[in-house]
Amino acid sequence: MARCRVEFYKKNGYRAFEEGDANKVILEHSLISVKINRSLDTPTAEATITAQYENLPTAIFAGGTQGIIDNFAQVKIYIDDVIQFTGVMKNYDYNTLDKTIEMTCHDMYYRMLNLCDKELKFYNKTAADIISTVVSDAKCNFYRSGGTNYTVSKLECEIGTMYNDIITNLVETMYARVRARKDGTIVLEEQYPLYDESNHELYPYDYTITTSDLSSETASRNANLLRNILKICCNDEYSIFESKTMTSYLNGEKWVDIIDNPLATTQELKQKAAGHKFLDMWRGSTALNILPVKGTPNIDLGQVIKIVSNDRGNGWYLIIGINTEVSANTYTDTLQLQGMRDKRKVYDQCNLIGSGKLKQQ
C-alpha cells in the first residue's frame, strides 16, 4: 500500500474541531482500503474508508458522543504526506464478523448543500464578495483565484435558500466555477483554463501520459446534450443566444434550452450565462475515460493532461473526474477526461439573436 494516512478529529461545534494529539485518531496500519471519488460535475467528493475497528475509539453503537470516530467528525486523508481529502464522516457500518468498519465521508462542500437559517441580503456588493460571505455563513474557508467579478446591485435570499443555489447563479454570470479543494477550502476559480486549439504548446499542461502507460481507454463524442439555442430568462425579460459553431456541428438543426438565472439582470450578464452553458456543453460532448493509471498524489481536478498516442496523435484533455483507490497492493487513479476547448472562441461565438419581455402568467 502507498503510504496512506487517515486522521479523525474530535467534534467541537459547527466549525471547530479539536486538533490536539489527545483528540485525534490516526489510522495507518489498520487501513484495508481507501477510495476517493471526485468530479467537477458533482458538488461533493466522497471518500470510503475501510479499516479494522478493534480498539478504535468509536462512539457507542447504540448511541453516545464520546468516541472520536463518529458522524460529523472531521477526516483528513493523506497519501505520501500529500493531502487528498478534507471533510466529515457521514455514515459508518460495522461488520462484526470481519471486525471491520466502513466509513463514508463527504468533503467540505457538503455544507454548501445546506439551507441558510437566516435572511441574506446584499446591496451593491461584488459577486466575489457575496460568494465569500455565503461560504463563510456556511462555516467554510474561502479563496478566490479567478472569475470575472462585477457588482450586484441587489440580492435578497430568504431563509431556506440553498447556499449552492446562490453560488451557482453567481458563477454562471462570472465565467467561473466553485469547488472544494483537497484541503477543504472552497475556491472560486476560472471556469476553464486557457487553451489555443491552433497552438497546443502555447499554454502549459500538467502531465503527459503515453498510450503505453494505459491499460485501457474509451473515447466518445456525444451530441445528445448539445443545445445551440439558449433562452436566458431573468425576472420579466429574456435574451436568446445562438452558438453558430454548434449549429453547424448539429447540421443546421435548432435545439433549444431555457435557463432561468435571477442574477442575469443585464444583456451582458445573460450573454455570460449563455457562454458559460455553451462551454459546459462542448466540454461534456468529448469524453475520454482511462482505466487505470498509476496513482499520483499531486494530480487534481481542472488540470490538463497531454496524451501521446501513436495511433491518433497527441491530444489535450481536462481532468474532470478522479477515482482514487489505495489498498495493500494497489494505488491507482481512474481519470475522467474531456477534450479541451478554446474558451475565448466559445464565449465570443455566443451571438444575440433575440430578446423580449416574458408573458405574465
Protein architecture, described:
Helix content is 14%, strand content 43%. With 361 residues, it is mainly beta. Strand 16 and strand 17 (237-243) form a beta hairpin. The longest helix has 18 residues, at 267-284. The chain is globular. The chain starts with a strand and ends with a strand. The mean pLDDT is 90. This is Prophage endopeptidase tail.
Name the features.
Prophage endopeptidase tail; 14-stranded mixed beta sheet; 361 residues; mainly beta; 3 domains; four-stranded mixed beta sheet; globular; 5 helices; Phage tail protein beta-alpha-beta fold
- Runs in which pLDDT lies below 50 for 5 or more consecutive residues are none
Residues in helices, as a percent range: 10-25%
Q: SSE order, as H and E? A: EEEEEEEEEHEEHEEEEEEHEHEEEEHE
Task: Please tell me the overall pLDDT.
Answer: 90
Radius of gyration: 23 Å
Distance between the termini: 62 Å
Integer tally of domains: 3
Largest sheet: 14 strands, mixed
Give the overall silhouette.
globular
The tally of strands reads 23
Structural class by secondary-structure content: mainly beta
What is the count of DSSP helices, taking H or I runs of 4+ residues? 5
Strand share of the residues? 35-45%
